[in-house]
Amino acid sequence: MPIRLLSDKVSSMIAAGEVIERPASVVKELVENALDAGATEISVEIRGGGVEQIRVADNGIGIPQDEVGLAFQRFATSKLSDASDLDAIPTLGFRGEALPSIASVARISVVTRHTGEESGTRLEIDEGRITDEQRHGASQGTVMTVRQLFRNVPARRKFLRTTATETSHIQTLVTRYALAYPEVRFSLNTGNASLQTPGSGSLREAVAAIHSLNVAENMLGIGPDDEDLERPNVSGLVSQPALSRANRGYMSFFVNRRWVQSRMLGYALEQAYHGFLKERRYPMAVVNIALDYDQVDVNVHPSKTEVRFRSGDRVFSAIQHAVRSTLTAHSPVPEIRGAEVGSPAYPYAPSRDSSRHFWPIEPFNAASATPSAVDGNGEIASDALQDTGSETSTDDTGGYTHRQTLPMLRVLGQVQTTYIAAEGPDGMYLIDQHAAHERVMFERIKADAASGEPQSQSLMEPLTIELNPIQQELVETHQQVFANLGLLLEPFGGNVYVIRAVPGILVDQDPAKAFIDMLDEMAQGGDVETWSDRAAYSMACHAAIRAGKVMTHAEMTALTRQLEQCHQPHTCPHGRPTIIHLSGTRLEREFGRR
Ligand code: ADP
Ligand code: MG
Fold it and tell me: How far is the CA of 77 from the centre of ligand 1 (A)?
């Protein structure tokens, strides 16, 4: 094919690919436009996870009649005029790309009236072309309605997740903006759930509307919220250590009121909590960072959620300082459990670096008992990992196609109150007590659920819990998943639910907390597993004994026997190894006997 210039239509669709990844991206761009237009009220309504329809209405300044059509052309913006403006961008938008991008992959209708004009305009756009434009009576502000998203981009439509997942992305997004702009009244209606913030200007009240009163009351204010102070200025709310969560989804960062995604900021916050939280628990936080506009570059990616700081170190230490000093002031004796005191490992690398192991170790596999499966470097041949040690089982195993086997093990004792040391037919085995118990619980929960008669225990006193919109959406959509697990809950009006019965496995836990954590984990989990698997392994994780618990010899033996009975004993439901093996040969080599 000869080289030629792409038509506007094709090039817009290519550009749209970067800006509009999913329905939540549309909501993001429309909400940002409303905020840039100075709106004090923004209402978002979605249908069908946003694919069917997204409607964003604001009471901002509106678009002048003679500019409405222009707003849908590429690189048309009212927010920048020359290159030097790019050095200091005070608005959320600036690329003039969002509306034309949305228009190229959906149908849009806009009704708008500019503050200085008597009458408004109504414009219809289909696949980037204006199909209708008329005068239209309207109140000041703008209403954008986007329909049939990705109708003309089947490739993109295929990558969309379920309605519930897309809805929850939108909820997360609106929630973030509502936290960044507590002075704006936000409302969100997804068809199933709704959310409304008061727009009073108080961040704590916004948190109460989004999460719950209880959460809002247990958040600590950080930093002086004074715009005139030295920059970077860090302000916001962070949770008391007692209010931790099972994932990072409750940590939000805003740079000059723009929501940003940054591992560096997340790490700074987690570091500040070091010693205050148990391992794998995360704070809830809304952190606002105010910087001079020229100290941060927001023009990094079309989606505008990444930023580059001129001086990242200063931002890092400002966050650490603000959070740490607040935590120390409120909890004079940090509780240190599980985590190692001192400087933690390099932040961005998973701690899988084998050079840090004292012994060269490998995940257990029955194949490693066979010398031929281990190559010269002691690595297990990968085909051996797949085949050996497994036998095909009959189909009464709840969907497991292979049954893996463990050898009979003799328990020797506990190491670091975390691992069980055992002897087997070929050397020594170390079992991770939490991971192993998680596997045992997971398979038990799945078998119970499959039996149709889950072990369920009614609560003497039903528990009430408050759910945020994301959690509520999950509960509404996956009632059956929870019922199958023996978890009975009923709506009680608004965002309040009553837990009437819990799975037998959870009776010793704090069921409300376990359930909230479960919902959070489900909301966050990857896309591969089914919802019921996600729920089951989150429940297993809660019910499983923790690392750090002293176990008796009898308990360790019982757990080892239970692990041997599992269909997939080698890994926990998340895929971490439950057991590693130090073969007799390996021991001989390490001790110089061979
Ligand atoms: P950008 O936000 O980068 O300028 P957009 O494509 O999102 O680009 O919007 C183009 C222009 O349309 C904006 O610069 C603004 O002037 C106008 N506009 C879009 N949405 C609104 C709105 N809700 N209220 C007022 N003006 C708007
Ligand atoms: Mg914009």
Answer: 6
Give which of 523, 304, 541 is closest to 442, Cα–Cα.
Answer: 541
Q: Give CA–CA dist 370/391, Å, rounded.
A: 16
Omega within 30 of 0 (cis) for the link into 462: no
Ligand nearest to the Cα of 37, by number: 1
Q: Is the CB of 91 under 6 A from ligand 1?
A: no
Q: Is the CB of 78 under 6 A from ligand 1?
A: yes
Ligand 1 center from residue 63 Cα (angstroms): 8
**Are the CB atoms for 360 and 378 separated by under 8 Å?**
yes
CA atoms within 13 A on the CB side of 263: 4
Q: Among candidates 527, 287, 564, which has minimal Cα distance to 410?
A: 564
DSSP state of 298: -
Tell which residue, 275, 286, 277, 210, has the closest CA to residue 240. Answer: 277
pLDDT tens-digit map of 287-324: 999 988 888 887 777 777 878 888 888 899 899 889 98
Cα 196 to averaged position of ligand 1 atoms, centre (Å):
24
DSSP element (H, E) containing 212: none
Q: Which residues contact 391 (CB under 8 A, 6 or more apart)?
A: 402, 403, 405
- 373 CA from centroid of ligand 2 (Å): 58
450 in helix, strand or coil? helix
Distance from the Cα of residue 356 to its chain's centroid? 29
Q: H-helix or E-strand containing 265? A: helix 263-272
Rg of the chain (C-alpha set): 28
Could you report the per-residue pLDDT of 53-66, keeping only the tens digit for each?
999 999 999 999 99
Separation between Cα atoms, residue 258 and residue 243, nearest integer Å: 25
Distance of CA 38 to the CA centre of its chain: 29
Enumerate long-range contacts of 79-87, CB under 8 Å, 24 or more apart: 79/36, 86/299, 87/293, 87/294
Q: How far is the CA of 92 from the centre of ligand 1 (A)?
A: 10
> Among 107-116, 217-226, 580-589, which stretch is predicted with the lowest mean pLDDT?
217-226
CB of 93 sitting under 6 A from ligand 1 = yes
Q: Which atom of ligand 1 is nearest to the CA of 91?
A: 2
Ligand 1 near 238 CB (within 6 A): no
Instruction: Give me 142's structure tokens.
Output: 């703008």
Q: Which residue has the least CA distance to atom 12 on ligand 1?
A: 71
Residue 363 has pLDDT above 70, yes or no: no
- With a 6 A CB cut-off, is 94 part of the ligand 1 pocket? yes
pTM of the predicted structure, to 2 decimals: 0.62
Neighbours of ion ligand 2 (CB under 5 A): 33, 93, 98
Q: For ligand 1, is residue 64 a contact (CB within 6 Å)?
A: no
